[in-house]
Design a protein that fits this description.
The complex is a heterodimer of chains A (173) and B (318). Chain A has one domain. Chain A has helices at 16-31, 43-54, 61-75, 81-95, 97-100, 105-129, 141-158. Chain A contains seven helices and no strands. With 318 residues, chain B is of the alpha+beta class. Chain B has five helices and twelve strands. Chains A and B meet through helix 1, helix 3 and helix 4 of A and helix 1, helix 2 and strand 1 of B.
Chain lengths: 173, 318
Protein backbone atom coordinates (compact mmCIF):
# COMPACT_ATOMS: atom_id res chain seq x y z
CA UNK A 1 0.00 0.00 0.00
CA UNK A 2 3.03 2.25 -0.13
CA UNK A 3 2.98 2.60 -3.90
CA UNK A 4 0.51 5.14 -5.27
CA UNK A 5 -2.23 3.49 -7.24
CA UNK A 6 -3.65 4.87 -10.44
CA UNK A 7 -6.68 6.24 -8.66
CA UNK A 8 -4.32 7.79 -6.09
CA UNK A 9 -6.60 7.02 -3.18
CA UNK A 10 -5.30 5.35 -0.07
CA UNK A 11 -7.57 2.46 0.82
CA UNK A 12 -8.69 1.19 4.20
CA UNK A 13 -7.56 -2.34 5.04
CA UNK A 14 -9.83 -5.07 3.71
CA UNK A 15 -11.83 -6.97 6.28
CA UNK A 16 -11.41 -10.76 6.10
CA UNK A 17 -15.10 -11.18 6.91
CA UNK A 18 -16.06 -9.07 3.91
CA UNK A 19 -13.76 -11.07 1.64
CA UNK A 20 -15.31 -14.35 2.76
CA UNK A 21 -18.82 -12.92 2.47
CA UNK A 22 -18.16 -11.68 -1.06
CA UNK A 23 -16.85 -15.10 -2.08
CA UNK A 24 -19.94 -16.75 -0.61
CA UNK A 25 -22.28 -14.30 -2.36
CA UNK A 26 -20.55 -14.94 -5.69
CA UNK A 27 -20.87 -18.67 -5.05
CA UNK A 28 -24.57 -18.25 -4.29
CA UNK A 29 -24.98 -16.31 -7.56
CA UNK A 30 -23.42 -19.28 -9.35
CA UNK A 31 -25.85 -21.60 -7.58
CA UNK A 32 -28.89 -19.80 -8.99
CA UNK A 33 -30.76 -22.22 -11.27
CA UNK A 34 -30.52 -20.51 -14.65
CA UNK A 35 -30.29 -23.81 -16.47
CA UNK A 36 -27.76 -24.86 -19.05
CA UNK A 37 -26.38 -21.60 -20.46
CA UNK A 38 -22.84 -21.87 -21.85
CA UNK A 39 -22.57 -18.07 -21.99
CA UNK A 40 -23.43 -17.58 -18.31
CA UNK A 41 -20.58 -15.64 -16.63
CA UNK A 42 -18.87 -17.30 -13.71
CA UNK A 43 -19.26 -14.81 -10.83
CA UNK A 44 -17.04 -16.78 -8.54
CA UNK A 45 -14.15 -16.68 -11.04
CA UNK A 46 -14.40 -12.88 -11.19
CA UNK A 47 -14.36 -12.52 -7.41
CA UNK A 48 -11.48 -14.96 -6.98
CA UNK A 49 -9.39 -13.07 -9.53
CA UNK A 50 -10.40 -9.77 -7.93
CA UNK A 51 -9.21 -10.77 -4.47
CA UNK A 52 -6.18 -12.50 -5.94
CA UNK A 53 -5.19 -9.15 -7.45
CA UNK A 54 -6.15 -6.93 -4.52
CA UNK A 55 -5.36 -9.18 -1.56
CA UNK A 56 -2.82 -11.68 -2.88
CA UNK A 57 -1.77 -12.71 0.62
CA UNK A 58 -5.30 -13.66 1.65
CA UNK A 59 -7.08 -15.17 -1.35
CA UNK A 60 -5.51 -17.19 -4.07
CA UNK A 61 -4.88 -20.70 -5.19
CA UNK A 62 -6.10 -22.69 -2.19
CA UNK A 63 -9.44 -20.88 -1.91
CA UNK A 64 -9.92 -21.15 -5.63
CA UNK A 65 -9.35 -24.89 -5.46
CA UNK A 66 -11.82 -25.34 -2.59
CA UNK A 67 -14.61 -23.33 -4.21
CA UNK A 68 -13.87 -25.03 -7.52
CA UNK A 69 -14.55 -28.43 -5.97
CA UNK A 70 -17.89 -27.19 -4.68
CA UNK A 71 -18.76 -25.82 -8.12
CA UNK A 72 -17.89 -29.18 -9.67
CA UNK A 73 -20.26 -31.02 -7.37
CA UNK A 74 -22.99 -28.45 -7.93
CA UNK A 75 -22.72 -28.55 -11.70
CA UNK A 76 -22.39 -32.34 -11.81
CA UNK A 77 -19.18 -31.72 -13.74
CA UNK A 78 -15.91 -33.63 -13.66
CA UNK A 79 -14.58 -33.40 -10.10
CA UNK A 80 -11.53 -31.11 -10.24
CA UNK A 81 -12.37 -29.29 -13.45
CA UNK A 82 -13.38 -25.98 -11.88
CA UNK A 83 -10.84 -26.54 -9.11
CA UNK A 84 -8.03 -26.62 -11.67
CA UNK A 85 -9.37 -23.58 -13.51
CA UNK A 86 -9.81 -21.52 -10.34
CA UNK A 87 -6.39 -22.50 -9.01
CA UNK A 88 -4.89 -21.30 -12.29
CA UNK A 89 -6.92 -18.06 -12.06
CA UNK A 90 -5.67 -17.51 -8.53
CA UNK A 91 -2.08 -18.09 -9.58
CA UNK A 92 -2.15 -15.73 -12.54
CA UNK A 93 -3.99 -13.12 -10.48
CA UNK A 94 -1.27 -13.26 -7.83
CA UNK A 95 1.52 -13.11 -10.37
CA UNK A 96 0.03 -10.10 -12.19
CA UNK A 97 -1.22 -8.13 -9.19
CA UNK A 98 1.71 -5.66 -9.06
CA UNK A 99 1.37 -4.73 -12.71
CA UNK A 100 -2.38 -4.72 -13.17
CA UNK A 101 -3.32 -2.05 -10.66
CA UNK A 102 -1.28 0.60 -12.49
CA UNK A 103 -3.86 0.61 -15.28
CA UNK A 104 -7.33 2.11 -15.40
CA UNK A 105 -10.40 -0.09 -15.09
CA UNK A 106 -10.79 -0.57 -18.85
CA UNK A 107 -7.14 -1.48 -19.18
CA UNK A 108 -7.46 -3.91 -16.30
CA UNK A 109 -10.50 -5.55 -17.90
CA UNK A 110 -8.67 -5.84 -21.21
CA UNK A 111 -5.73 -7.55 -19.49
CA UNK A 112 -7.98 -9.83 -17.46
CA UNK A 113 -9.92 -11.02 -20.51
CA UNK A 114 -7.26 -13.46 -21.84
CA UNK A 115 -7.06 -14.94 -18.35
CA UNK A 116 -10.77 -15.75 -18.30
CA UNK A 117 -10.58 -17.09 -21.86
CA UNK A 118 -7.71 -19.34 -20.79
CA UNK A 119 -9.74 -20.63 -17.83
CA UNK A 120 -12.71 -21.53 -20.01
CA UNK A 121 -10.56 -23.08 -22.73
CA UNK A 122 -8.76 -25.11 -20.07
CA UNK A 123 -12.11 -26.49 -18.87
CA UNK A 124 -13.10 -27.21 -22.47
CA UNK A 125 -9.86 -29.11 -23.12
CA UNK A 126 -10.23 -31.09 -19.91
CA UNK A 127 -13.78 -32.11 -20.80
CA UNK A 128 -12.94 -32.95 -24.39
CA UNK A 129 -10.08 -35.15 -23.18
CA UNK A 130 -12.51 -36.80 -20.75
CA UNK A 131 -14.76 -37.57 -23.72
CA UNK A 132 -17.60 -35.05 -23.51
CA UNK A 133 -19.40 -33.17 -26.23
CA UNK A 134 -18.43 -29.74 -27.53
CA UNK A 135 -20.93 -27.24 -26.08
CA UNK A 136 -21.02 -24.82 -29.01
CA UNK A 137 -19.13 -21.60 -29.57
CA UNK A 138 -21.37 -19.51 -27.35
CA UNK A 139 -19.26 -20.60 -24.38
CA UNK A 140 -16.69 -18.05 -25.55
CA UNK A 141 -19.12 -15.27 -24.61
CA UNK A 142 -18.74 -16.14 -20.93
CA UNK A 143 -15.20 -14.72 -20.56
CA UNK A 144 -16.33 -11.53 -22.33
CA UNK A 145 -19.11 -11.08 -19.78
CA UNK A 146 -16.69 -11.84 -16.96
CA UNK A 147 -14.24 -9.21 -18.18
CA UNK A 148 -17.15 -6.77 -18.47
CA UNK A 149 -18.03 -7.52 -14.85
CA UNK A 150 -14.55 -6.51 -13.71
CA UNK A 151 -15.27 -2.74 -13.33
CA UNK A 152 -18.49 -3.58 -11.51
CA UNK A 153 -16.64 -5.93 -9.20
CA UNK A 154 -14.07 -3.22 -8.49
CA UNK A 155 -16.81 -0.71 -7.75
CA UNK A 156 -18.69 -3.00 -5.37
CA UNK A 157 -15.88 -4.91 -3.69
CA UNK A 158 -13.61 -1.90 -3.10
CA UNK A 159 -16.46 0.29 -1.77
CA UNK A 160 -15.92 -0.66 1.90
CA UNK A 161 -12.23 0.17 1.58
CA UNK A 162 -12.93 3.53 -0.03
CA UNK A 163 -14.92 4.82 2.91
CA UNK A 164 -13.64 7.79 4.81
CA UNK A 165 -11.03 6.92 7.44
CA UNK A 166 -12.62 9.33 9.92
CA UNK A 167 -16.43 9.16 9.63
CA UNK A 168 -18.34 11.95 11.32
CA UNK A 169 -21.96 13.07 11.34
CA UNK A 170 -21.81 14.76 7.97
CA UNK A 171 -20.03 11.85 6.39
CA UNK A 172 -21.31 8.72 8.10
CA UNK A 173 -19.81 6.28 5.63
CA UNK B 1 -5.14 10.46 10.08
CA UNK B 2 -6.16 7.88 12.70
CA UNK B 3 -4.30 4.69 13.22
CA UNK B 4 -5.72 1.60 11.57
CA UNK B 5 -6.34 3.49 8.39
CA UNK B 6 -3.62 1.80 6.45
CA UNK B 7 -2.46 -1.73 6.45
CA UNK B 8 0.45 -1.37 8.82
CA UNK B 9 1.75 -4.91 8.84
CA UNK B 10 4.37 -5.27 6.15
CA UNK B 11 4.48 -8.57 4.35
CA UNK B 12 6.67 -11.03 6.23
CA UNK B 13 10.16 -11.41 4.84
CA UNK B 14 10.87 -14.99 5.72
CA UNK B 15 7.73 -16.91 6.65
CA UNK B 16 5.89 -16.56 3.39
CA UNK B 17 5.02 -20.20 2.96
CA UNK B 18 5.51 -22.01 -0.31
CA UNK B 19 5.70 -19.87 -3.43
CA UNK B 20 2.68 -19.34 -5.63
CA UNK B 21 4.11 -21.57 -8.34
CA UNK B 22 4.64 -24.37 -5.84
CA UNK B 23 1.10 -24.04 -4.57
CA UNK B 24 -0.26 -24.00 -8.11
CA UNK B 25 1.72 -27.13 -8.96
CA UNK B 26 0.41 -28.87 -5.84
CA UNK B 27 -3.23 -27.96 -6.39
CA UNK B 28 -3.08 -28.61 -10.13
CA UNK B 29 -1.66 -32.07 -9.47
CA UNK B 30 -4.42 -32.66 -6.92
CA UNK B 31 -7.05 -31.52 -9.41
CA UNK B 32 -5.69 -33.77 -12.15
CA UNK B 33 -5.61 -36.68 -9.72
CA UNK B 34 -9.23 -36.00 -8.75
CA UNK B 35 -10.31 -35.74 -12.37
CA UNK B 36 -8.72 -39.06 -13.27
CA UNK B 37 -10.13 -40.66 -10.13
CA UNK B 38 -13.57 -39.28 -10.92
CA UNK B 39 -13.62 -40.15 -14.60
CA UNK B 40 -12.00 -43.57 -14.54
CA UNK B 41 -12.28 -44.99 -11.01
CA UNK B 42 -14.73 -44.73 -8.15
CA UNK B 43 -12.17 -43.37 -5.68
CA UNK B 44 -13.62 -39.86 -5.62
CA UNK B 45 -17.16 -40.93 -4.74
CA UNK B 46 -16.88 -40.37 -0.95
CA UNK B 47 -15.44 -36.88 -1.48
CA UNK B 48 -18.28 -36.06 -3.86
CA UNK B 49 -20.82 -37.39 -1.35
CA UNK B 50 -19.34 -35.25 1.43
CA UNK B 51 -19.26 -32.10 -0.69
CA UNK B 52 -22.82 -32.75 -1.85
CA UNK B 53 -23.94 -33.07 1.76
CA UNK B 54 -22.40 -29.65 2.50
CA UNK B 55 -23.89 -28.18 -0.65
CA UNK B 56 -27.47 -29.46 -0.49
CA UNK B 57 -28.83 -26.84 1.96
CA UNK B 58 -27.17 -24.06 -0.06
CA UNK B 59 -28.66 -25.43 -3.26
CA UNK B 60 -32.16 -25.56 -1.88
CA UNK B 61 -31.63 -21.99 -0.63
CA UNK B 62 -30.51 -20.89 -4.09
CA UNK B 63 -33.52 -22.61 -5.64
CA UNK B 64 -35.86 -20.47 -3.53
CA UNK B 65 -35.90 -17.38 -5.81
CA UNK B 66 -36.89 -19.53 -8.77
CA UNK B 67 -39.69 -21.08 -6.73
CA UNK B 68 -40.91 -17.64 -5.69
CA UNK B 69 -40.81 -16.60 -9.31
CA UNK B 70 -42.91 -19.61 -10.29
CA UNK B 71 -45.36 -18.93 -7.48
CA UNK B 72 -45.53 -15.23 -8.34
CA UNK B 73 -46.06 -15.95 -12.02
CA UNK B 74 -48.87 -18.34 -11.10
CA UNK B 75 -50.42 -15.66 -8.93
CA UNK B 76 -50.40 -13.03 -11.66
CA UNK B 77 -51.29 -15.43 -14.43
CA UNK B 78 -54.93 -14.48 -14.35
CA UNK B 79 -58.21 -16.27 -14.04
CA UNK B 80 -58.67 -17.09 -17.71
CA UNK B 81 -55.36 -18.91 -17.99
CA UNK B 82 -56.04 -20.86 -14.81
CA UNK B 83 -59.47 -21.87 -16.04
CA UNK B 84 -58.04 -22.92 -19.38
CA UNK B 85 -55.38 -25.01 -17.64
CA UNK B 86 -58.04 -26.64 -15.48
CA UNK B 87 -60.16 -27.37 -18.53
CA UNK B 88 -57.25 -29.03 -20.30
CA UNK B 89 -56.39 -31.02 -17.19
CA UNK B 90 -59.97 -32.28 -16.94
CA UNK B 91 -59.99 -33.32 -20.57
CA UNK B 92 -56.71 -35.16 -20.11
CA UNK B 93 -58.13 -36.80 -16.99
CA UNK B 94 -61.18 -38.08 -18.89
CA UNK B 95 -58.99 -39.48 -21.66
CA UNK B 96 -56.68 -41.11 -19.15
CA UNK B 97 -59.45 -42.53 -16.98
CA UNK B 98 -60.90 -44.27 -20.00
CA UNK B 99 -57.49 -45.76 -20.72
CA UNK B 100 -57.06 -46.70 -17.07
CA UNK B 101 -60.39 -48.51 -16.93
CA UNK B 102 -59.46 -50.41 -20.03
CA UNK B 103 -56.07 -51.19 -18.48
CA UNK B 104 -57.74 -52.66 -15.39
CA UNK B 105 -59.81 -54.95 -17.56
CA UNK B 106 -56.80 -55.92 -19.65
CA UNK B 107 -54.81 -56.58 -16.50
CA UNK B 108 -57.49 -58.98 -15.29
CA UNK B 109 -57.59 -60.74 -18.65
CA UNK B 110 -53.83 -60.90 -18.70
CA UNK B 111 -53.68 -62.41 -15.21
CA UNK B 112 -56.20 -65.11 -16.25
CA UNK B 113 -54.29 -65.90 -19.42
CA UNK B 114 -50.99 -66.03 -17.58
CA UNK B 115 -52.55 -68.40 -15.05
CA UNK B 116 -53.83 -70.57 -17.89
CA UNK B 117 -50.39 -70.68 -19.50
CA UNK B 118 -48.72 -71.25 -16.12
CA UNK B 119 -46.58 -68.09 -16.42
CA UNK B 120 -45.44 -66.05 -13.45
CA UNK B 121 -47.16 -62.74 -12.78
CA UNK B 122 -45.80 -59.70 -14.63
CA UNK B 123 -43.50 -57.57 -12.56
CA UNK B 124 -45.14 -54.49 -11.04
CA UNK B 125 -43.45 -51.14 -11.62
CA UNK B 126 -42.71 -49.28 -8.42
CA UNK B 127 -42.18 -45.55 -8.68
CA UNK B 128 -41.31 -42.48 -6.66
CA UNK B 129 -42.35 -38.92 -7.47
CA UNK B 130 -39.60 -36.31 -7.47
CA UNK B 131 -39.23 -32.65 -8.26
CA UNK B 132 -36.55 -31.27 -10.55
CA UNK B 133 -34.38 -28.95 -8.44
CA UNK B 134 -32.38 -27.49 -11.29
CA UNK B 135 -30.78 -28.26 -14.60
CA UNK B 136 -27.04 -28.62 -14.17
CA UNK B 137 -25.25 -25.60 -15.60
CA UNK B 138 -22.45 -27.75 -16.98
CA UNK B 139 -22.53 -26.99 -20.74
CA UNK B 140 -20.83 -30.26 -21.67
CA UNK B 141 -23.57 -32.60 -20.44
CA UNK B 142 -27.36 -32.73 -20.11
CA UNK B 143 -28.14 -33.45 -16.48
CA UNK B 144 -30.84 -32.67 -13.99
CA UNK B 145 -30.72 -32.71 -10.23
CA UNK B 146 -33.74 -34.22 -8.46
CA UNK B 147 -34.72 -33.54 -4.88
CA UNK B 148 -34.86 -37.24 -3.95
CA UNK B 149 -31.82 -39.28 -3.02
CA UNK B 150 -30.72 -42.57 -1.53
CA UNK B 151 -32.50 -41.64 1.69
CA UNK B 152 -35.79 -41.74 -0.21
CA UNK B 153 -34.94 -44.97 -2.00
CA UNK B 154 -33.56 -43.75 -5.32
CA UNK B 155 -31.30 -46.41 -6.83
CA UNK B 156 -28.38 -46.01 -9.20
CA UNK B 157 -29.51 -46.64 -12.76
CA UNK B 158 -33.19 -46.02 -12.08
CA UNK B 159 -35.20 -44.89 -15.12
CA UNK B 160 -36.76 -41.43 -14.89
CA UNK B 161 -40.00 -40.76 -16.79
CA UNK B 162 -42.60 -38.05 -17.09
CA UNK B 163 -46.09 -38.10 -18.57
CA UNK B 164 -44.81 -38.20 -22.15
CA UNK B 165 -42.17 -40.90 -21.85
CA UNK B 166 -38.62 -41.73 -20.75
CA UNK B 167 -36.48 -38.75 -19.76
CA UNK B 168 -33.25 -40.44 -18.69
CA UNK B 169 -31.53 -42.49 -16.07
CA UNK B 170 -30.20 -41.78 -12.58
CA UNK B 171 -26.42 -41.77 -12.82
CA UNK B 172 -25.40 -40.50 -9.39
CA UNK B 173 -27.15 -40.80 -6.08
CA UNK B 174 -26.44 -38.59 -3.07
CA UNK B 175 -28.17 -38.75 0.30
CA UNK B 176 -30.76 -36.05 -0.44
CA UNK B 177 -30.45 -35.50 -4.17
CA UNK B 178 -29.70 -37.47 -7.30
CA UNK B 179 -28.43 -36.73 -10.79
CA UNK B 180 -30.31 -37.72 -13.91
CA UNK B 181 -28.52 -38.03 -17.25
CA UNK B 182 -31.02 -37.06 -19.94
CA UNK B 183 -31.42 -39.03 -23.14
CA UNK B 184 -29.92 -36.13 -25.12
CA UNK B 185 -26.62 -36.55 -23.26
CA UNK B 186 -23.69 -37.99 -25.12
CA UNK B 187 -23.27 -40.79 -22.58
CA UNK B 188 -26.92 -41.85 -22.66
CA UNK B 189 -27.93 -45.11 -24.31
CA UNK B 190 -31.22 -46.95 -24.24
CA UNK B 191 -32.43 -50.19 -25.84
CA UNK B 192 -35.59 -49.62 -27.89
CA UNK B 193 -38.22 -51.56 -29.77
CA UNK B 194 -39.77 -50.27 -32.99
CA UNK B 195 -43.52 -50.66 -32.48
CA UNK B 196 -44.26 -50.92 -36.21
CA UNK B 197 -41.71 -53.57 -37.13
CA UNK B 198 -40.89 -55.08 -33.70
CA UNK B 199 -37.22 -54.61 -34.44
CA UNK B 200 -34.93 -54.04 -31.51
CA UNK B 201 -32.15 -51.47 -31.61
CA UNK B 202 -30.08 -49.22 -29.37
CA UNK B 203 -30.57 -45.47 -29.31
CA UNK B 204 -27.72 -43.19 -28.27
CA UNK B 205 -27.75 -39.56 -27.19
CA UNK B 206 -25.51 -36.73 -28.30
CA UNK B 207 -26.66 -36.36 -31.91
CA UNK B 208 -26.85 -32.59 -31.47
CA UNK B 209 -29.86 -30.34 -31.05
CA UNK B 210 -31.31 -32.55 -28.33
CA UNK B 211 -31.77 -35.43 -30.77
CA UNK B 212 -30.82 -39.07 -30.35
CA UNK B 213 -29.34 -41.41 -32.90
CA UNK B 214 -30.23 -44.98 -33.82
CA UNK B 215 -26.78 -46.40 -34.41
CA UNK B 216 -25.86 -49.54 -36.32
CA UNK B 217 -29.00 -49.47 -38.47
CA UNK B 218 -28.23 -51.10 -41.78
CA UNK B 219 -28.86 -49.01 -44.87
CA UNK B 220 -31.75 -51.17 -46.03
CA UNK B 221 -33.41 -51.52 -42.62
CA UNK B 222 -37.14 -50.94 -42.39
CA UNK B 223 -37.17 -47.62 -40.56
CA UNK B 224 -39.49 -44.79 -41.55
CA UNK B 225 -39.89 -41.25 -40.37
CA UNK B 226 -42.52 -41.18 -37.64
CA UNK B 227 -41.95 -44.71 -36.31
CA UNK B 228 -42.58 -44.82 -32.58
CA UNK B 229 -39.86 -46.41 -30.45
CA UNK B 230 -40.63 -47.76 -26.98
CA UNK B 231 -38.58 -49.52 -24.34
CA UNK B 232 -38.25 -53.20 -25.08
CA UNK B 233 -38.33 -54.62 -21.57
CA UNK B 234 -35.40 -57.01 -22.05
CA UNK B 235 -32.70 -54.83 -20.54
CA UNK B 236 -33.53 -55.35 -16.89
CA UNK B 237 -33.74 -51.60 -16.27
CA UNK B 238 -36.68 -50.11 -18.13
CA UNK B 239 -40.21 -51.53 -17.91
CA UNK B 240 -41.57 -52.53 -21.30
CA UNK B 241 -43.64 -50.18 -23.41
CA UNK B 242 -42.59 -46.73 -22.26
CA UNK B 243 -42.43 -44.23 -25.16
CA UNK B 244 -38.84 -43.23 -25.88
CA UNK B 245 -38.69 -41.41 -29.20
CA UNK B 246 -40.03 -41.11 -32.72
CA UNK B 247 -37.90 -41.31 -35.84
CA UNK B 248 -37.06 -37.78 -36.95
CA UNK B 249 -34.96 -38.23 -40.08
CA UNK B 250 -33.66 -41.22 -42.01
CA UNK B 251 -30.68 -40.66 -44.26
CA UNK B 252 -29.55 -43.58 -46.38
CA UNK B 253 -26.15 -42.98 -47.84
CA UNK B 254 -24.83 -44.94 -50.77
CA UNK B 255 -21.23 -44.94 -49.59
CA UNK B 256 -21.98 -46.40 -46.18
CA UNK B 257 -23.55 -49.65 -45.07
CA UNK B 258 -25.45 -47.88 -42.33
CA UNK B 259 -28.34 -45.47 -42.33
CA UNK B 260 -28.15 -42.27 -40.31
CA UNK B 261 -31.33 -42.25 -38.21
CA UNK B 262 -32.02 -39.39 -35.81
CA UNK B 263 -34.73 -39.56 -33.18
CA UNK B 264 -36.84 -36.96 -31.47
CA UNK B 265 -37.33 -37.92 -27.83
CA UNK B 266 -40.94 -38.42 -26.77
CA UNK B 267 -40.53 -36.48 -23.54
CA UNK B 268 -39.51 -32.87 -24.06
CA UNK B 269 -37.09 -31.83 -21.32
CA UNK B 270 -38.30 -28.22 -21.36
CA UNK B 271 -40.45 -27.04 -18.54
CA UNK B 272 -40.72 -30.36 -16.73
CA UNK B 273 -40.90 -29.92 -12.97
CA UNK B 274 -42.19 -33.23 -11.66
CA UNK B 275 -40.94 -36.65 -12.72
CA UNK B 276 -41.32 -40.26 -11.68
CA UNK B 277 -38.27 -42.28 -10.66
CA UNK B 278 -38.96 -45.95 -11.43
CA UNK B 279 -37.31 -48.87 -9.74
CA UNK B 280 -34.92 -50.67 -12.11
CA UNK B 281 -36.50 -53.95 -13.16
CA UNK B 282 -33.52 -56.10 -12.19
CA UNK B 283 -34.03 -55.20 -8.53
CA UNK B 284 -37.18 -57.31 -8.37
CA UNK B 285 -35.89 -60.04 -10.65
CA UNK B 286 -37.37 -63.29 -9.36
CA UNK B 287 -35.03 -65.65 -7.56
CA UNK B 288 -33.78 -68.58 -9.58
CA UNK B 289 -35.41 -71.92 -8.76
CA UNK B 290 -33.24 -74.39 -6.82
CA UNK B 291 -32.61 -76.67 -9.80
CA UNK B 292 -31.26 -73.77 -11.83
CA UNK B 293 -28.98 -72.85 -8.96
CA UNK B 294 -27.64 -76.43 -8.94
CA UNK B 295 -26.88 -76.21 -12.64
CA UNK B 296 -25.48 -72.73 -12.14
CA UNK B 297 -22.85 -74.16 -9.81
CA UNK B 298 -21.32 -76.03 -12.69
CA UNK B 299 -21.16 -72.82 -14.69
CA UNK B 300 -20.48 -70.16 -12.09
CA UNK B 301 -20.20 -67.31 -14.55
CA UNK B 302 -23.79 -67.55 -15.81
CA UNK B 303 -25.10 -65.00 -13.39
CA UNK B 304 -22.22 -62.65 -13.94
CA UNK B 305 -22.71 -62.83 -17.65
CA UNK B 306 -26.36 -62.00 -17.29
CA UNK B 307 -25.56 -59.14 -14.96
CA UNK B 308 -23.10 -57.80 -17.47
CA UNK B 309 -25.80 -57.91 -20.12
CA UNK B 310 -27.95 -55.58 -18.05
CA UNK B 311 -27.56 -52.03 -19.21
CA UNK B 312 -26.11 -50.44 -16.14
CA UNK B 313 -24.48 -47.04 -16.01
CA UNK B 314 -20.82 -47.00 -15.15
CA UNK B 315 -20.76 -47.04 -11.37
CA UNK B 316 -20.34 -43.49 -10.17
CA UNK B 317 -19.80 -42.67 -13.80
CA UNK B 318 -20.13 -39.35 -15.44
Amino acid sequence: MIMPRSDAQLLLPARPLFIIASLLVAFALNLLPFGRQPAMPDWLAVVIVFWGVHQPRRVGIGWGFLFGLLMDVHQAALLGQHALAYALLGFVAISMHRRLLWFGLAGQAAQILPLFVAAHVLQLVVRLVAGDAFPGWSFLLAPLFEAALWPLATLVLLAPQRRAPDPDENRPL
Amino acid sequence: MPLGTLERTPPPFFRQGPSAATRLAFFAALAVFLMVADARFTVAVPLRQALAAVLTPLQSLAALPAQWLFAGAGYFEGLAAAQRAEHEAREALVRQSQGAQRAVQLDRDNATLRALLDLGPALPVRSLAAEVMYEAADPFTHKWILDRGSRHGVLLGAPVVDAAGVLGQVTRVYAQTSEVTLLADRDAAIPVLNTRTSQRAAAFGGAGGGLMELRFTSANADVRVGDALVTGGLDGVYPAGLPVATVHTVERRAESGFALVTLQTAASPDGVRFVLVLEPMHVQRPELPASAVQEGRDAPDTRERRDAAINRPRSGGR
